[in-house]
Amino acid sequence: MTISNAISERELLHRLREGDHDAFSSLYATHHDALYLYAYRLVDDEDLAADFVQEAFVYIWEKKALLHIETSLIAYLFRTVRHKFLNLKAHYKVRTDFADHFQHYLDEGAYVVDRNIEEKELFAQLQTELAKLPQKMSQVFNLRQQNIPDSAIAEQLGISEKTVKNLMSQTLKKLGHTFKRFVFFLFAY
User: Which domain of life is it from (predicted)?
Assistant: First the structure.
């Protein structure tokens, strides 16, 4: 920038701070194209580049009274456009991260809900099948679900431990094919 250009720019900035529309129009006409090309290289989108340039000039106009530019106005405008770009990039990252986390939550939530529904349905089916079993078999099964040892079950029902094991084995065989997954789930822990 030559000395006369620097003086001219300082004069325009001074007039701009005072609210001179012609000074603003002159700054706009002088720097618009260079800013647009810079913004376009950043975003590779014509509309977005035009928006960045417009927002930079709107910012200059709105903050005209507070402007304290140490370097040239064009350098200040380039930084303003770059900050707009970085803010947009950060905003997109936040939105993308949120969308990813939300989708994960939905996927995980659907799995949990599906699993809970499946477990309730299996439990209801198990209760139906247990009701069909002979009384001693269902009693042994229910007591075993409560983690009561075979010796305590035998004592409570007045039968031998071997009978408890046999009844449990018969119960599991009867429920086996239908409830293989569920029985494993119940006794896996």
Answer: Bacteria
- For residue 52, give Cα distances in angstroms to 58, 61, 161: 10, 14, 82
Tokens (6 digits) for 73: 């106005």
Q: What are phi and psi of 92, to 5 degrees?
A: -60, -40
Extract the tokens encoding 125.
Answer: 């089916």
Instruction: Give the rounded distance of the alpha carbon of 97 from its chain centre.
Output: 5
DSSP designation for 114: H
- Within this chain, do residues 83 and 137 fall inside the same structural domain, yes or no? no
Tell me if 130 sits within 8 A of 183, measured CB to CB. no
Q: Tell me, what's the pLDDT at 127? A: 81
Task: Write down the pTM of the prediction.
Answer: 0.46
**Spatial distance between the Cα atoms of 187 and 189, rounded to a whole number of angstroms:** 6
Last residue of a domain, one of 97, 124, 142: 97
List, for residues 43-53, the tens digit of each pLDDT value.
888 998 998 89
For the chain, what is the domain count? Answer: 2
**What's the confidence (pLDDT) of residue 109?**
58
Q: Supply the range of the domain harboring residue 167.
A: 133-187
Cβ proximity of 53 and 29 under 8 Å? no
The percent helix, strand, coil of the chain (3-state, each to 5) is 85, 0, 15
